Amino acid sequence: MAAKQSFSERLISYIKEKGFVYGPEPEIYGGVSGFYAYGPLGKRLKNNIEAIIRKHFNEQEFYEVEYPIVTPAAVWKASGHLDGFNDPVILTEDGKESYRADKLIEEVAGIEAGHMKDEELLATIKEKNIKSPTGKKLALKIDRHSLMMKTTIGLNTEAYNRPETATTTYLPFKNYMKFFRDTLPFGVFQIGKAFRNEISPRQHLLRCREFTQAESQTILFPGMKQDWTRFDAAKNDTMPLWTEEMQKSGKEPKEISLAEAMEKKILKNKAFAWHLNLAFRMFLGFGIPGKNIRLRQHHSDEKAFYSDDTWDIEANLRSFGWIEMCGISDRTDYDLKQHSKFSGQKLTARTTEGKEETPHVIEIAFGVDRPFFALLDLFFDEREEDEQRTLLRLPPGIAPIQAGIFPLVKKDGLSEKAEGIFNSLSKKFLCIYDEGGSIGRRYSRQDANGTPYGITIDYDTMKEGTVTVRERDSMKQERVKVQDLENWLGAKLNAAK
Fold it and tell me: Distance between alpha carbon 372 and the CA centroid of its chain, in Å?
């Protein structure tokens, strides 16, 4: 008898079977780890997540930009990526397997290792007798592996696929200044592909070699951070903060308002507090439950040397536990100073007093693929009475299909009536028309797709002008007039956002 699959195995099998994500790709050539394709339902869900990102940033007057993926080596020399963007790699004694040392420790021993130096990693591996996932002994030697993906422009110009969108977003700074009429602060954001030559990518979409990033940069003078006018509107919002001190003393995260965080000097300035809250609200907007989120402050020896403060949004997944979702960092003036130095261009702005300064940057940065995976992980379910009957309890507003339209039978004019309702609703909502199989089987198919509402056209529709609407999670049904259906569905979807 075959062993029962683990939750993560069932989840990943479901994700592929239902057309969310395929891979590793290209499958027909054997596949390469770290590369995945979004299928029909997956691409829709990803689009919905990106729409929420755009909504949140647009509402706060951030402007979206798009920059080339391939850029010359000089850009990455300036940013520090060419020399310092690498991971600790460890091999098995036979040299046939390689792993990222810090992640291997975290997965096998459950110890936070992201801040450890190479000698600490080796000491932990030795002390805990950590072996490879296949049970092999590890060679007690750490090497450094560059994450940069190299390419060539033309005949011989060295270039790289960007490992993040952020660096490329800084480069048009002088053009931004013209667009924003030499006035700070301003915000820009970019959603696009990034590439990292990971050592041994695992955990499905959580660690890929090609992925989609969403990153925002707020450009401001340092003197503006404590006088951030938008702070007051959000000061009573609370966030589950997990400070460095709390982590070291073994305390749990605590719900703290922005005002209290400032008063107790947990957060250094109003601008950073506001950005932290903006990122947190965005992840709630995706539909990730607040009880599954915490905001973890980087340890002093963990954050980048130029960062004034850095926090991560982490989500507690059923498959892989606490996973980093997003980083929020006060990067000070490091980026613009570096690019000014290496390009020979002046990247400064004048204050209202006429003083020339290099602006600071506050950044929100995350991969779109991670909240995508988190939603599938947290809302994938199986009916208690039947493990073979799966469903996806996605929040209705983000579902890849919002309503299924079903004629009870394919005769007596029901199909034609159902097609008319589908044609009307699909102009405003993401709908599917399905007339194949029993009505129960059609409900079940859409439950597994995450479709929140099933609309059945039956004989009472022809007599009374009403349809049966079934709700996915509760399986409750109610009659709704055809003429009210658009408003009814719109209200339900808006209420769920």
Answer: 6
166 and 304 co-located in one domain: yes
* Arithmetic mean of pLDDT, 274-287: 98
Buried b (16+ CB within 10 A) or exposed e, 14-28: bbbebbbbbbbbeee
Residue 141 and residue 64 in one domain: no
438 and 465 fall within a common domain: yes
CA–CA–CA angle 142, 146, 148 (5° rounding)? 165
* pLDDT beyond 60 at 387: no
Which structural domain, as residue segments, surrounds residue 109? 86-146
What CATH number did the domain enclosing 452 receive?
Answer: 3.40.50.800
pTM (2 d.p.):
0.92
Q: Are residues 141 and 168 in the same domain?
A: no
Is 90 in contact with 98 (CB distance < 8 Å)? yes
Furthest-apart CA pair in the chain: how many Å? 79
| pLDDT for position 111 | 86
The domain that holds 326 is classified in CATH as 3.30.930.10
Question: What is the pLDDT confidence band of residue 109, given thresholds at 50, 70 and 90?
Answer: confident
Number of domains in the chain: 3
Average pLDDT over residues 246-251: 95
Instruction: Classify residue 385: in a domain, yes or no.
Output: no
Does residue 206 sit in the same domain as residue 110?
A: no
Q: What is the pLDDT of residues 52-98, one digit of tens each?
A: 999 999 999 999 999 999 999 999 999 989 888 888 999 999 988 88
What tokens does 158 get? 């060295």
Q: Are residues 173 and 43 in the same domain?
A: yes
Same domain for 229 and 264, yes or no, is yes
**Residue 2 confidence (pLDDT) above 70:** no
Domain co-membership, 138 together with 158: no
Q: What is the pLDDT of residues 231-241, one digit of tens each?
A: 999 999 999 99
**pLDDT at res. 3:** 58
